[in-house]
């Protein structure tokens, strides 16, 4: 909606009171979005959240350039508050945002492999959620030595400059980095409708890869750019296909895990490097949660022993615990092993683009080539200007006395330059240069020395022009500078590379105590796991009022369970996730334990064993579905699967099948039909509606289904059919079960 203009209006109840009356005009939402929202969205994308080819966001660039202009590249440190205040002349977003930017770029915070701010004082730690940095008035900073590679050519017309937000200063649009900082410095940004998440790579590997790629466009990038590298160290689990995809598309994820050592003397595990994506507090919180829930019993205590020497998390383990197996369990259940999702979204000429490594290098090389050409051209113009002045000086050399006489005989100072121009046939710039020579330098020796430079300058200019005309020579300059960066600032990898075949395989189920149990599921969703001893010693099974047994079967503590619900979903869990109980206990309420949706209830429980069997679903409309249990197996550790079965008709029964059996289906009008499940063709889709098995009469529906061997039917042949669908036969009195069958009323032998 858009308002027109406000006009004063008198209130009816009191004419002396003047109020405001606003006329409201309608405006299409598309027009509102285009005129109001789109400029904001583009501003966030282009001017705030997405890094550019130099590897910096505008906030980074403004801070570093301010520090450069303050002389902090070669001078001593100054208070951070001073830097923040000066930066506000370029960055109007407030001192807190500027100081946050400085903290992230600092050596003390340890968020970058190549920090650009040499900090002193408490700048916090990237691996600690709770370690806050000190206020800017207490800390000091200057630019790190590597910033020489950011600013060495900035005053030689290598990049464009623009006015700042109030037009009082000029600032660079990019920094002329002599190495591909966009790949070296990790960068994360969330814009409007898009984001960027660039992992860092080792400086030496990036520079060496760029050199090889410039010299050979067909260079195999993965042979020199081995894998991402992070300041927090850790170990990357190397997957060649995964990394190849990231290098090619700019999207994908890889796994990174903590590094640890076992100290046998103290019987503890010491974690000294963690994934870049997490914090020490997040790890401790998760481990504490697992200990409290009883999912990890091998740990007696965990504490943070981080000190001035760096990160250290100590885990006291119980006697007899295998540290390798314990860490394998922790890697699966805690942030000690995490994933880094890559999204190489970079602004190229003001447009966001997701690029692979090869494309990023292409763009950086093209941009750096332009920087070098501009630098060479600027140098050539300076040399040509100097040469031009020396040409004028050469003409003066022919007759110094004449020049002195012209100057001496000129009455007005303003006429000196014009008279020299006329007397020697030189232009204004040359005449001005001659006129500015000191009296002590008006001698043949000085002038001969200057004019001797002419030949050298002519050679230099010719060489610079040759550079501009030959791409090969420009490439040589870029590669030489990259080699120089490696020599000065190169460092070893911090993140170790671990290959999949180096990681020992641990079966999680083998770490769980295995013993026989009997499992019970009640109609209201209460679950019990009872050992044989407790079952023999215990009394009658206890249930809530109006609750009763739905299904029960023997299993083991390692058994995986499928819990089907009335919302067409199935939850996956393990018997070991539940404590042993007694018959007199109510048990665990599954909707709460498994985090089911509001109003969702458990209707059946299945032990899929090795997912080789089948399962049959029977619906109210007379249809049945037979599908493979393999359809419920997942490679990922997913706890819930939607679309567990068809939602076209209410579910009346579920029967697990180890092989084909005879099944009895009952209808509400007192009929029954028995058929063999081999008549049901197995369907690949879990959500299939199945096939009709019972021809129902008007207003009748399927009431239940059960294995025929588990029913009270005596006249077996009366109800058995050889094809489906079938109407079935009316149940005789002797074939009726006195207990009304409902979904899941199965004895042990039925399962």
CATH homologous superfamily descriptor of the largest domain: DNA gyrase/topoisomerase IV, subunit A, C-terminal
How can the largest sheet be summarized?
4 strands, mixed
Task: Note the beta-strand portion.
Answer: 15-25%
Taking all residues together, what is the mean pLDDT? 88
Q: In a few lines, what is going on in this structure?
A:
By secondary structure, this protein is an alpha+beta fold. It contains 19 helices and 35 strands.
What topology does this entry show?
Layout: E1 2-10, E2 18-25, H1 29-49, H2 58-69, E3 78-79, H3 80-87, H4 95-105, E4 117-120, E5 140-143, H5 148-151, E6 161-163, E7 170-172, H6 181-184, E8 187-190, E9 195-198, H7 203-215, E10 235-238, H8 240-249, E11 251-257, E12 259-263, E13 268-273, H9 280-292, E14 299-304, E15 313-317, H10 323-333, E16 337-343, E17 345-348, E18 351-354, H11 357-397, H12 400-409, H13 416-424, H14 428-435, H15 444-469, H16 471-489, E19 496-499, E20 516-522, E21 526-530, H17 532-537, E22 549-556, E23 560-565, E24 569-574, E25 588-589, H18 590-593, E26 602-606, E27 614-619, E28 623-628, E29 640-642, E30 651-657, E31 662-667, E32 671-676, E33 691-692, E34 702-707, H19 716-719, E35 729-730
Parallel strand pairs: 10-19
Antiparallel strand pairs: 1-2, 3-5, 4-5, 6-7, 8-9, 10-11, 11-16, 12-13, 13-15, 14-15, 17-18, 20-21, 20-22, 21-25, 23-24, 23-26, 24-29, 27-28, 27-30, 28-33, 31-32, 31-34, 32-35
Helix pairs in contact: 2-3, 3-4, 7-16, 11-14, 11-15, 11-16, 12-13, 13-14, 15-16
């Amino acid at each position: 909606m858009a308002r027109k203009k406000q006009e004063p209006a008198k209130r009816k109840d009191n004419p002396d009171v003047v109020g405001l009356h606003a006329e409201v005009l309608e405006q299409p939402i598309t027009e509102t979005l285009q005129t109001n929202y789109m400029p904001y969205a583009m501003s966030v994308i282009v001017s705030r959240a997405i890094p550019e080819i130099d590897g910096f966001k505008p906030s980074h660039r403004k801070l570093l350039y301010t520090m450069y202009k303050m002389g902090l590249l070669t001078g001593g440190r100054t208070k951070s508050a001073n830097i923040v205040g000066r930066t506000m002349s370029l960055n109007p977003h407030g001192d807190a945002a500027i100081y946050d930017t400085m903290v992230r770029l600092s050596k003390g915070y340890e968020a970058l492999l190549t920090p650009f701010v040499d900090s002193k004082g408490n700048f916090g730690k990237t691996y600690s959620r709770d370690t806050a940095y000190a206020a800017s008035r207490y800390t000091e900073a200057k630019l790190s030595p590597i910033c020489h590679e950011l600013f060495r050519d900035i005053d030689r017309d290598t990049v464009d400059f623009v006015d700042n937000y109030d037009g009082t200063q000029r600032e660079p649009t990019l920094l002329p980095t002599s190495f591909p900082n966009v790949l070296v410095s990790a960068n994360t940004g969330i814009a409007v409708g898009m984001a960027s998440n660039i992992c860092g790579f080792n400086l030496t590997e990036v520079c060496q890869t760029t050199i090889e790629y410039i010299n050979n466009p067909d260079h195999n990038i993965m042979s020199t750019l081995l894998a991402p590298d992070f300041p927090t160290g850790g170990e990357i689990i190397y997957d060649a296909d995964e990394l190849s995809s990231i290098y090619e598309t700019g999207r994908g994820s890889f796994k990174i895990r903590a590094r640890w050592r076992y100290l046998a003397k103290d019987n503890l595990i010491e974690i000294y490097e963690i994934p870049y994506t997490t914090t020490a507090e997040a790890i401790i919180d998760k481990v504490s949660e697992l200990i409290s829930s009883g999912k990890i019993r091998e740990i007696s205590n965990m504490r943070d022993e981080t000190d001035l020497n760096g990160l250290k998390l100590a885990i006291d383990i119980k006697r007899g615990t295998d540290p390798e197996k314990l860490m394998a369990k922790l890697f699966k259940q805690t942030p000690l092993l995490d994933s880094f999702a890559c999204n190489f979204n970079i602004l190229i000429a003001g447009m966001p683009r997701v690029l692979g490594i090869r494309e990023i290098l292409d763009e950086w090389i093209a941009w750096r080539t332009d920087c070098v050409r501009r630098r060479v051209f600027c140098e050539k113009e300076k040399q040509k200007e100097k040469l031009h002045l020396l040409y004028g000086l050469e003409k003066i050399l022919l007759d110094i006395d004449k020049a002195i006489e012209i100057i001496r005989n000129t009455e007005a100072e303003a006429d000196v330059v014009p008279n020299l121009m006329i007397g020697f046939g030189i232009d204004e710039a040359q005449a001005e240069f001659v006129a500015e020579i000191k009296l002590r330098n008006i001698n043949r020796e000085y002038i001969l020395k200057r004019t001797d430079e002419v030949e050298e300058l002519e050679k230099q200019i010719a060489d610079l022009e040759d550079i501009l005309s030959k791409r090969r020579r420009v490439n040589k300059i870029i590669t030489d500078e990259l080699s120089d960066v490696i020599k000065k600032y190169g460092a070893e990898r911090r993140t170790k590379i671990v290959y999949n075949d180096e990681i020992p395989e641990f079966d999680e189920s083998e770490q769980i105590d295995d013993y026989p149990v009997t499992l019970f599921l009640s109609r209201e969703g209460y679950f019990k796991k009872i050992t044989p001893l407790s079952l023999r010693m215990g009394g009658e099974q206890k249930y809530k009022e109006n609750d009763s047994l739905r299904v029960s079967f023997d299993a083991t503590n390692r058994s995986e369970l499928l819990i089907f619900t009335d919302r067409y979903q199935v939850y996956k869990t393990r018997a070991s996730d539940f404590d042993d109980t007694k018959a007199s206990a109510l048990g665990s309420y599954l909707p709460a334990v498994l985090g089911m949706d509001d109003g969702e209830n458990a209707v059946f429980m299945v032990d899929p064993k090795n997912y080789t069997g089948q399962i049959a679903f029977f619906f109210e409309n007379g249809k049945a579905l037979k599908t493979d249990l393999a359809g419920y197996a997942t490679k990922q550790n997913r706890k819930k699967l939607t679309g567990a079965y068809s939602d076209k008709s209410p579910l009346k029964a579920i029967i697990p099948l180890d092989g084909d059996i005879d099944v009895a289906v009952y209808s509400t009008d007192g009929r029954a039909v028995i058929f063999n499940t081999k008549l049901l063709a197995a369907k690949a889709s879990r959500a299939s509606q199945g096939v009709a098995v019972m021809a129902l009469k008007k207003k009748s529906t399927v009431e239940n289904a059960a294995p025929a061997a588990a029913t009270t039917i005596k006249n077996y042949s009366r109800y058995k059919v050889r094809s489906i669908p079938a109407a079935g036969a009316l149940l005789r009195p002797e074939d009726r079960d006195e207990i009304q069958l409902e979904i899941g009323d199965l004895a042990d032998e039925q399962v």
